Amino acid sequence: MKSLLFILALLFASPAWATTYYVAATGGNDANSCAQAQSESTPKATMNAGVGCLSGGDTLQVKNGTYAESFTTAFPSGTVGNPTIINNFAGHAPVAKSTTGSTAWNLDNKSYITFDGIKFDGSNHTDSTGQVWRHTNGTNNITFKNFEMWGNIGSGFSMVAGAQTSNITIQDCIMRDMGGGSQNAGSYPVYNVNGVNVIIERCEIYNVARNGIKYGEGGSGDTASGEIRYNRIRDWGLLDTNPAQYGNPAIQTSNYAGNLKIHSNLIHTPRAACGSGVETFAIWIHNTNSNVEIMNNVLDSDGCANMYLIRMDGAPSAPVTMKNNVFIHSGSTGTVRNDTGETHVYATNRCDIAGTGCATTGAMGFVDEAGHNYNPTAGSALRDAGTDLGASYATDFAGVSRPQGAAWDIGAYEYSRRSFLPIIFQ
Question: Where are the beta strands (DSSP E) in 185-286?
Fold first, then answer.
């Protein structure tokens, strides 16, 4: 009897009932039935038709091709431990290209869905207030990973409108060549207005018109929280050329954002604002933010004039904490601009020259600072010079655990033998 109960438990605990369907731009046919599309040899031809076959917990495998479609919103929700999966067929790199000028895919009150290995071409987007992916009305537990996104004028991902969005993960990605429109049109790779526990990790974001990532700017009752970690953000602010306005930062938090960890990121090479008279920032903590922690980042102005690495203004309800960061600001306006009236918390930050929040100053000892390889060398002043920040921050940009020596290192990397290996990012 016990053996029978054990077998039944295994059957009900595993997603044995889930079905896999196939889509192929070449050789597929939407006239094939859903039963036929369970075979690689008789797939559907479009992603819409493939999604139409899915029930919660099923998998859609997509083969090579560009799928130019007005995309469906009919993704079925999965469950805990058995998400609905839309992924690339092994070794393939399919491209989803929306044919609409505004929002391509809308996840409205959906949950437990994973998108893995699908590229998103937003070049047909002409609306700077639109999004490639829009999350609304309580959407939760959605994962996007191993993808590339480019070309859209509006935002890549937005968490907006209706009931609180939660547990959205964006990881292992490239978001590039996007944004446009007016100064504050909301054209950001990620725009989180009301998402709780939104995690952006291990992504490279570059060649964007405005901000890289923005959390907040919702209304009363909205909350934007989560983690921004292990990302490289560079070449942002391509259209910030009006000296009468602030340039958009690589990362911004705004109204009703809080409980946010920004750590182990590399931010460098701001673009058009430099030399144009526009004041810009790597990180801007703006208005009514609480419990924001900025830890173990490398912020490099690359000599950009009219730039503070961090600006804080408005009325945060708690001090911002900044520890173990590297501030490189020679040739720029300064490290930290504090317009809040608050006394913020600084510890063990190292700067190339003196500035606000700097515990020590001098050469960093990077492998190749000019080439933006921010690994510390064996003799680096960053080694064993940081503060122990606890388990939440105990992994570095490259996945190395902290500490490797007698104490934590300052900056995004912990010194290890990896410091002398070539960096292949993405």
Answer: 190-192, 195-208, 213-215, 224-229, 232-236, 251-253, 257-263, 266-268, 280-286
Among candidates 50, 77, 73, which has minimal Cα distance to 62? 50
- Hey, is 49 helix, strand or coil? helix
Strands 59-62 and 20-23 come out as parallel
pLDDT digits (tens, 9 = 90+) for 186-244: 568 988 877 889 999 999 999 988 889 988 876 666 678 899 999 999 998 877 665 55
Query: CB–CB of 414/401 below 8 Å?
Result: yes
CA distance 352 to 22: 54
221: helix, coil or strand? Answer: coil
Under 8 Å CB-to-CB from 22, ≥6 apart: which residues? 28, 37, 38, 39, 40, 43, 44, 50, 60, 61, 62, 63, 89
What's 391's DSSP letter?
Answer: G
Amino acid at 321: T
Q: Is 405 helix (H, G, I), strand (E, B) or coil?
A: coil
Answer whether 172's CB lies under 8 Å from 119's CB.
no
Beta strands in 270-378 (DSSP E): 280-286, 290-295, 298-300, 307-313, 321-323, 326-328, 334-338, 345-347, 350-351, 360-361, 366-368, 373-376
What is d(CA 254, CA 412) in angstroms, rounded to the nearest whole number? 24
204, 235 contact by CB (below 8 A)? no
Task: List, for residues 13-28, the tens digit of each pLDDT value.
Answer: 445 579 999 999 999 9
Q: How far apart (Å, rounded) are the C-alpha atoms in residues 197 and 225?
A: 5
Cα gap 342→103, rounded to integer Å: 40
- Report pTM: 0.92
Bridge pairing between strands 373-376 and 366-368 = antiparallel
